[in-house]
Amino acid sequence: MEVEKIEFKWGTEYRCYVDEVLTSIILQSGGTLYFWNEEYCRIRNIEQDIDMIYSPVFGLRFNTDETEDSKKILWDMFLPGLKAQPTIDNFPLLDSEYHHLMYCRDLIQ
């Protein structure tokens, strides 16, 4: 595995390659870690002890206690994380919501 490190003013991005194929991206900004791969997106804030995973199939899942404050904080962090797409080449994360809706629709039918 090869790791490419990219420094930004607001954080550091690590791109992980296996056989020259981009397999995952880790973005560290302040106390928040964003992790993307083809299967899911994980966001963890160590300082506020909140952790969540989003996948196209299962939607949003909290790995820490789910409170109203933590839900708001996670959504505030999660949406900007996905909007950071210009730093994430060729990852179909914007289709995640569509895939999740189709999965939910299939469960109902």
UniProtKB/TrEMBL annotation:
It comes from the Bacteria. This is Uncharacterized protein. It comes from Cronobacter sakazakii (strain ATCC BAA-894). The lineage of its organism: Bacteria, Pseudomonadati, Pseudomonadota, Gammaproteobacteria, Enterobacterales.
